[in-house]
Fold these 2 entries.
Entry 1:
Amino acid sequence: MRKISARMITDTVAGLCVKANLILRDDVLSALKTAFALETNARAKGIIKAIIENARVARVDKLAICQDTGMPVVFAQIGREVVIEGNFNAAINKGIESGYRKACLRSSIVEDPLSRGRARYTPAVIHIGMVNSNKLKLTVLPKGFGCENKSQALMFKPTADISEIKKFIVNAVKIAGPDACPPYVVGVGIGGTADYASLLAKKALLRKIKSKKSKLEKELLGKINKLNIGPMGLGGKTTALAVNIETYPTHIAGLPVAVNISCHALRSATAVL
Amino acid sequence: MKRIVTPLNKGQIKQLNSGDEVLLSGVIYTARDQAHKRLDETIKRGRKLPIDLKGAVIYYCGPTRTPKGKVIGSCGPTTSSRMDAFTPALLKKVGLKAMIGKGARSKDVVRAIKKHKAVYFLAYAGCGALIAGYIKKAKTILYKDLGAEAIHRLEVKDLPLIVAIDSRGRDIYS
C-alpha cells in the first residue's frame, strides 16, 4: 500500500486550481489558433484574436482567464493500492480554498442554493472513482456558469431515431446561442441513467480537442458550425471547437442523452500522485 | 472607430448604430444578479436608490479579487439575459442609459431600450484578463457584503465595445 497524505492532496489541488484558471489548456489554445486561421468572417476573426490575446495576458499578468472562475469540479481516480491519510474531501476543499485565495480567484459558491448568502470558494463538486493502480489522479475543472446554465438532458425512447438525438444536441447549442461564450466545446453523454449521462457529458470536456473523433462527433461539429452563431454570437463558422461524446451501456427501456456546453475558456488541469 | 465618453448624452447615444465598434471612456458601474435584485426591490418599494443611475452605464460584471499591485482582477461581462427582468424598470424609473454585457436580450428589453433611447453594448466575452487592462480605477461603492456582486465604480479608458441594441431598437441578434 502507498500512503498519500491529506496535505499532499491539498497542495496538489491548490496548484491545479491556479494552473487551470490562469493558463489556458494547450489543446484549447491551439484549436483557437486553428480557428483563427480558418475563419473568414472579419468580426469573428477579430474576436478569436482577442480571445487568444486574453489567454496570453492571463498567463503573463497572472490574472484569471475569465472572472467566472467557476464551480470547481474535481475528478479523483484513487488507485486501490493507495491509502489516503486524513479526510479526502476536506483535503480537496482546503486545496481549492488555498489555490483560489492565492491566485485572487472569485468566490462564486453560495452555501444554500435557495437562500443564497455570502459567496465562498467551496465546496467543490467531487467525483471519486476507483482504479487498479498505486496512484492518485486528480483533475480540477473550474466550470463557469454562463455555459453550465445551458446544460440539457433528455430521456429518449429506446426506439428513437439517431436523427432525433442529433437534433437535440444541435438544438442545445442553438439555445445556448450567443450567451455562453462561443466558440464552444460541446460535451455529450449518452447512456447510463439520467445522472450518469450528465456526468459523462461533463467528463467529455476533459478529452482533448484533437482526440480521435467518431463519425457522429465529426458530423455534429459540422452541423453546429453551420449554425452561423460564431464567436460572441455575431456570426462566423467558428461556433464550436469540438464535439466530444462519451457513451455507457443503458437500460432496454431508455436512452438518456445529456449535453454539457463549455465556453471557449475550457479550463482544467490534472496531476498524478 | 467611434470614441464615446460618459456621461452619455442624447446626442452621443443617437449616433450609435447596432453593429458599431466603439471605444468607451469614463465612469461605469458594475452590477449583476443580486445587485439588480436589491435595486429592483428598492424601486418597487418606491424608495430612492442609494446610487444615482440617471444617465449611467451599468456593466454586468463580477470581477475576481484584485491581485496586489493591480487595479482590478479579471473582469469580463456576464450573461446579460439574467438581468432582463430588472432592466425595463431601471430604464424607466431611474434613467439608466446604457448597459454592457454579453449575449442577447429579451424583446421587452429591446422595446424598453428603444422607448427610453438607451443603448446596449457587448464587451469581449470571456476576455476578463484583457478587459482588466482598460480599467484605470476601481472602487467598491455599494452592497459590499455581496463581494464580487457588489457595485463597483470603474473608470475605463478606450474600453472596446460593440453596439448590440441601439436607441432605435435595432438588435444585432435579430
Note: Chain B is about 20% helix and 30% strand.
Entry 2:
Amino acid sequence: MTTGLLTTTVGSFPKPPYLQKARNAFASGKLSREELSELEQQATREVIALQEEIGLDILVDGEMARGDMVVFFAEHFAGMEVGGLVRSYGNRYYHKPVVKGPVRWQEPITVDLWRYAQSLTDKPVKGMLTGPYTMVEWSFLEGYDDFRQAVLEMARAVNYEALELDRAGAPFIQIDEPALSTRMEDIDLAIEAMAIATEGLTAKTATHICYGDFVSAYPRFLDMPVKQFDLEMANSSHDLVELLKTEGFPEDKEIAWGVVDVHSHEIESVDDVVAEIKRGLEVLPPERLYIDPDCGLKTRTWDESADKLRVIMEGVRKVRAELGIE
Amino acid sequence: MIATVVGSYPKVPNKPRPARLRLAINKFDRGDMTLEELDRVADEVTIEVLQEQVEAGLDFVTDGQIRWEDEQTYLARNLEGVSINGLIRWFDTNMYYRQPVIEEPLAWTKPSTVRDYTFATEHSSKPVKAVLTGPYTMARLSVDRHYNSVEALAGAFAEALNREAKALQDAGATFIQFNEPAILQAKDDYTTFVASCARVVDGLSAETGLYLYFGDVEGIYPQVLDLPFDLIGLDFVMGAKNEGLLHRTPFTKKLGLGIIDARNTRLEQPAAIAERIKTLGAGIDPDNIHVSPSAGLEFLPREVAQEKLRLLAEGVRQAEGVLV
C-alpha cells in the first residue's frame, strides 16, 4: 500500500464532445433531463476509468454535471436565481446568478453523482464544492444589505451540502474559494465562512488556492480551517520552498503540490515533474505531500489531460521508487 | 445637470429578444457570415443601444462600445508594436481581457474609434461623447517587452491616444473622455500618471473628461483637481471615501457623480438618487454635474442596465427640480 506522495486532481475534467452537445440540446429544450443525466453518468464512468487506468490515488467525478461553478449551486439553493446574460470575455457570456433573498440549502445537489462515481471505484472519490465567499462574490447581491451576512448564511448552506457528502461517505471534501484571490483583504471573512462550511465534517477537508495569494497572506492563510492546501504553483514552487523553509509550515497540515501547468498545451517531461516533487520534499514529508496538476483540467482536451496525468504518475513512481515508498 | 454613462453598454439582450451580435460573431467565426454582414449587425445593435439610452432619459450617450472586445484590445490592436496575448482578469471583476504585449515602439497609424463615433452621432438624437481607455491604464494592463518602464510606456500610449483623440476632435467630437481605473490601484505612481495625462490632452480644444473608478481618490485628492481635464468622474459606490474627501476640499471642476452601482443588479430608486445628488453636489453648479453609473455597464444584464439608467435619469430630473 502506498504511504506517500498520493496523487489526485484539482476537480474538473474536460467534458467529452457528446456531453457538450447534449448540454446545449438540453438548454434549448431538445433533450430531457433524464437523457442528459444518462450522458453525465456515461462521462463520469469515462472519467473514473481514465483515472483508474492512469493509477491516481484520490479520484474526482470530474464535475460532468457542472458548467459554471457558481451557477451550478445557484440553481439549487433557495434565495438564489440564475440571472441575465453577462459577458465574461470576447464573445463568451454566462448567466450570472443573483442572491435574491435569504439563502437556504434545500436538497442534496452533488451527492447523487458523487455516490455514483464512488460506486464505480474502490479508490476514494473527492466531494467538490464551491466556497461561500465565492458563491456570493461572483453573484449579484440583491437580497442582503450586508455582504458579510450573505457570505455567512451562504456558508451555512454550503455546510449542509458538505454534511450530506460526509454522511454519504465522502472521505475528502474540497471547498474552493477562487474569488478570494481578487480580494485578499476579505481573508478574515473567508476564513470565518470556511469554519462554518466545514463544521461537523469527519472527511478530510481541502481548498484550492493560487500560489501567489497563499504567499501574500502567509501565514494568515494557514488559519483557513482545512487540512490541505491545494496550490496552483504557476511555476513558482522555488519561491514557495524558500518561504516554507524560513517561515515554517504547520505539522498538522498538508499541501497538494501542483506539478504541471494546466493552462499550457505542452506536456511536461517526467524529469520536470520529478524535479517539482523533489522541491516539495525539501519542505514536506511524503505523507503530507500530495501531487496533482496545478488547476482544474476542464480547459484542456481529453488527450492533453490524460497525457499530463500520465507524466505526473510516472514522475511520482520514479520518486517513490527512490524513496522506497510502495 | 446631465444624466450620462461612463462608457460600455451590454452588447446582447436576454430572451425573448435575440442575442443578435453574439450569434453574428459566432457565425462570422465559423465562416458563415462575411465581415460586411457582421459590421451591419454591429451598426444595428449600436443604433438599438443609442435608442435605449435615449429612451431611458439620458442627456449624453455613448456608442456603448459595442465593437470593443475589451477596453484594451480595441485600442491596442491597431497600434504598431503591439501583439495581443492571452486572457487575464480585468481588475477585480469577473470579466477578462486580452493582454496587449508591447514588442516594439508604439506607433499610431490609423484611428480605431472615429468611424464608430461618427456613426453614433449620425444615429443619436442626443449628444454623443467619445470614450477612450486612458494611457496609464493601457500601460498598466499591458506586458512591456520594449520600454522596460511604466513611465515610458504610459508616455508612448499617451502619444498614441493623443493622436486618436485629435482624430476624434477632427471628426467633430466635442467631449473626449479618458477612463483611468488603474491609477486608483497604483497611487504611488501618481507622478507618472500626471505626465501621461498632460501628454494625452496636449493640443486638444474639445472638452475633456477623466473617469476614475473601482476605488477612491484618497491620497491623490485634491491633487487630481490640478489635472488638465474639464471634468473628473468619481466612483461613489466602490469609492465610499470619496464623499468625505469632497466634503473636506471643495471640488473645483465639473464633477462626474458615479452613484449608481454598475456592478450589482439591485436597483436604486429615484428619490434616493436625487438625495445623493443633493448631498454630493452641494455647492456645485448643477450645470457642471454629470450623473452616471459608477463604471461601464457591461457587468450587468442589458435589461437591468437600461432600468438602472431610467431610474438614474428620473433621479436627476428630481434633483434638478429641487436645485434649480
Note: Chain A touches chain B at residues 83-91, 93, 96, 98, 138, 140-142, 182-183 (CB under 8 Å).
